[in-house]
Amino acid sequence: ETGVTQSPTHLIKTRGQQVTLRCSSQSGHNTVSWYQQALGQGPQFIFQYYREEENGRGNFPPRFSGLQFPNYSSELNVNALELDDSALYLCASSLANYGYTFGSGTRLTVV
Amino acid sequence: QKEVEQNSGPLSVPEGAIASLNCTYSDRGSQSFFWYRQYSGKSPELIMFIYSNGDKEDGRFTAQLNKASQYVSLLIRDSQPSDSATYLCAVTRGGGTSYGKLTFGQGTILTVHP
Fold first, then answer.
1. Are strands A106-110 and A10-13 parallel, antiparallel or unpaired?
2. Would you place residue B100 in the very low, low, confident or very high pLDDT band (cuts 50, 70, 90)?
3. Which of A6, A74, B80, B93 has the fewest CB atoms within 10 Å, i.e. is most exposed?
4. CB A106 within 8 A of CB A6
């Protein structure tokens, strides 16, 4: 059983709307990352948070933003949704020397 | 040139055979290398990670790393139908206590037929 939980599991939004995805990781996992995985592709890095500060960002526009909270939970916010934002969004937390553990993901469909 | 490239697949092997999955990467500063398995509609599941040149074995899985050739591979011995999935190679410059961004390949679809 994964120690990373994500909600919701599925979501349908209309183009132009805003969405918030949530992630909760295990105690001690103080680094959380978000990835976008389009169908048939490998996951693409969106950004990473360490101790509530963003400390790395991939090639995603500013309308993708995030937060990390003291209780190790995290949010991914996407504004002005576009059709190409339809994807599986993955949250991953890491523990030293054990790599990244992914949550079950949120499937976002933009129509 | 893609940062991480995997053999294009799909790869089909008979049950009991050895499946060989390959990955090359372009960033010579990469320090940590991961193999994930992803079943259809599910999230990636970590199989193995490797940091040092050479082989690392875990049950039926062996990861091989050659930093000079910028090459990492995964061998699956005694392949089972349950091994049928997409295998993702991922690399990062970080290691140990701080991994940083993972860069993934596009994945290789493996099918093990009875």
1. parallel
2. confident
3. B80
4. yes
